[in-house]
Amino acid sequence: MPIIVNLDVMMAKRKISLNDLSERVDITPANLSILKTGKAKAIRFSTLEAICKVLDCQPGDILEWREGEL
Model's pTM, two decimal places? Predict the structure, then answer.
């Protein structure tokens, strides 16, 4: 998939754990892990907004499009 999820990069930059982020965003650690590993097929805008608010970032800091990636 040409959409790359850089959530792990932003979490490392902000020094926040998966469990802490999941609690603050109100999403299960399992679902957040699926998103973090790039295996998610979709994300709600409300979830993306909450993640960006907690990590103090823009959606483009988390999601990236690369042509030709599989």
Answer: 0.89
SS3 labels along the chain: CCEEECHHHHHHHHCCCHHHHHHHHCCCHHHHHHHHCCCCCCCCHHHHHHHHHHHCCCHHHHEEECCCCC
Question: CA 48 from chain center: how many Å?
Answer: 7
Q: Flag whether 68 is in a domain.
A: no
Task: Note whether residue 26 is domain-resident.
Answer: yes
Q: Give the rounded distance of the alpha carbon of 22 from its chain centre.
A: 10
Range of the domain at 33: 3-55
Identify whether 43 is part of a domain. Answer: yes
Whole-number Å distance between alpha carbons of 3 and 19: 24
Q: What is the pLDDT of residues 10-44, one digit of tens each?
A: 999 999 999 999 999 999 999 999 999 989 999 99
